[in-house]
Specification:
This protein has 475 residues and is mainly α. It folds into four domains: 48 residues; 134 residues; 112 residues, Cytochrome Bc1 Complex, Chain D, domain 2 (Orthogonal Bundle); 122 residues, Orthogonal Bundle (Cytochrome Bc1 Complex, Chain D, domain 2). The chain is 42% helix and 4% strand. It has a three-stranded antiparallel sheet with strand order 1-2-3, with no helix packed on it. It has a two-stranded antiparallel ribbon with strand order 4-5. Strands 6-7 form a two-stranded antiparallel ribbon. Helix 11 crosses helix 13. The longest helix is centred in the N-terminal third of the chain and has 23 residues. The chain is globular and about 70 Å long. The two termini are 26 Å apart.
């Protein structure tokens, strides 16, 4: 539920998953990393030295480093690489670290923030541009503390504040996969384009001091295995809060776990309104069951909603590959969160609008364009067709206080997540080419105020602002 940006080849590669596999102990992993980096140089020297004494000396160095280590620990084992592959999918690494039409994990994707644009980096094992020269310690420091090899500080657009809470064993597995399961790509990294003074990376040391919390995810034995596993996935690996938790003045998330009322209460991300994931009945997940949450994360659709925008990318490249147990764990944790907005009364459908539309009465502002452009799919009753065309009545996105996502959808259209469980994805056409700003505002205001929906009106000014922003992002 986090921060994902583009569909990539990695989203459709081999999806074999081996979960619950014990990773290599950290001490042996560190020794393995050292040996793995040293062996190629050692072998080169063995080939170059012609004298028997030289060959013996080179072999002695080789054996000295390998002493006390089995052949299986000299390099990451297959089980650890496969676990790392799974974690990389849950963390949605490929979506952010793959540029448009680019090679998987080679970086180059623009990530627009309030203070400038950051470009994702190359995390393939290329020595010059990627992580080929990183030791496990270097990698851990970058992933969990936001400090790259050589001391360069990373911008928190890379969600290291969430990854800071990952276990060392999982970081080691991720390292094993990126080093041993991903091909090296020689692609240079692109410099960020930040407003002054945010381009001064030393300032990030103070930011980390104030906001970085690397304490392990809090556990609660009384809440069971599924809840605790879900808390770890949501807070750390899947970094859901990076998109769904609002940020303060210095762009830090306002809450990191369920103890904060702000945690997962909804936020604005790159011009989209990331949904409230707490237990609110109208704008949150209060009306969804655990099974329905898991269904949405696996397929991109359920009886309440259909995925669109960045969330379609997250589902296509990440959550559809999660194990059944992990999806249930995430659902269990999310269902335990109290509502952030105090919405305790369930949605009730009002049939009055349905009767008016079925009778051809389009006198309400926005009713006629709704009937022309929207009703064929979403119906006169606003209920849509489950798991194909989402309902508009009682939909959390429709009721969201921030209408940004709705405006984007009506202007530019959307596509559902491309998943292995569905024969095809569904496309909603955009109508920005034929509706002016006031007409778009009228349609959305009609949708947000009928069938029992009680959201506020949408202004033409808000539509114009989103239109300018989305047109500026188009290729």
């Amino acid at each position: 539920m986090g921060g994902g940006k583009r569909l990539s080849a990695a989203a459709h590669s081999d999806n074999k998953i081996q979960d619950n596999l014990a990773p290599m102990p950290p001490r042996l992993e560190r020794l393995s990393a050292v040996a793995f980096q040293f062996f190629p140089d050692c072998l080169r020297r063995l080939g170059e030295r012609r004298a028997p004494l030289g060959r013996l000396a080179g072999l002695g160095v080789f054996l000295a480093i390998a002493f006390g280590m089995s052949a299986a620990t000299a390099a990451p084992d297959a089980a650890q690489v496969e676990r790392g592959r799974y974690l990389a999918r849950v963390a949605n690494c490929a979506a952010c670290h793959t540029g448009t039409e680019g090679a998987p994990f080679a970086g180059g994707l623009p990530i627009r923030t309030a203070v400038g644009t950051v470009y994702s980096t190359n995390i393939t094992p290329d020595a010059a541009n990627g992580i080929g020269g990183y030791s496990l310690e270097d990698f851990d420091r970058a992933v969990r503390h936001g400090v790259a090899r050589g001391g360069k500080r990373l911008y928190p657009a890379m969600p290291y504040p969430s990854y800071a809470r990952m276990t060392q064993q999982d970081v080691a597995a991720l390292y094993a996969y990126l080093r041993g399961g991903v091909g090296a790509v020689k692609q240079a990294n692109r410099a960020p384009e930040m407003r002054w003074p945010f381009g001064m990376r030393p300032l990030l040391a103070a930011w980390n001091w104030m906001f970085l919390d690397d304490a392990p995810v809090r556990t609660d034995a009384a809440k069971g295995v599924a809840w605790n596993r879900g808390a770890y996935l949501v807070q750390a690996v899947a970094h859901c809060g990076a998109c769904h938790t609002p940020r303060g003045m210095l762009f830090a998330e306002k809450g990191l776990d369920e103890r904060s009322r702000h945690f997962l209460s909804g936020a604005s991300v790159e011009g989209w309104s990331a949904t409230n994931l707490t237990g609110d009945q109208i704008t949150g997940l209060g009306a969804w069951t655990r099974a329905e949450i898991a269904e949405f994360l696996r397929t991109g659709r359920n009886s309440h909603a259909t995925s669109f925008g960045p969330m379609s990318t997250v589902i296509a490249s990440a959550t559809q590959f999660m194990t059944t147990d992990d999806l249930d764990a995430v659902s269990a944790y999310l269902k335990s969160l109290p509502g952030a907005r105090g919405e305790t009364t369930p949605f009730r459908h009002d049939p009055a609008t349905t009767a008016q539309l079925e009778q051809g009465r389009f006198d309400a502002v926005g009713a006629r364009p709704y009937a022309q452009f929207c009703m064929p799919c979403h119906g006169a009753n606003g209920k849509g067709f489950a798991r194909v065309f989402p309902p508009l009545a009682g939909n959390p996105t429709v009721a969201d206080p921030d209408p940004a996502s709705l405006i984007n959808l009506l202007l530019d259209g959307a596509v559902t997540a491309r998943v292995n469980t569905a024969p095809a994805d569904y496309h909603m056409p955009g109508y920005g080419w034929t509706l002016d700003d006031q007409e778009v505002a009228n349609v959305l205001t009609f949708v947000r105020s009928n069938w029992g929906n009680r959201a506020g009106p949408v202004s033409a000014q808000a539509v114009a602002q989103r239109r300018r922003a989305t047109e500026g992002q188009k290729p």
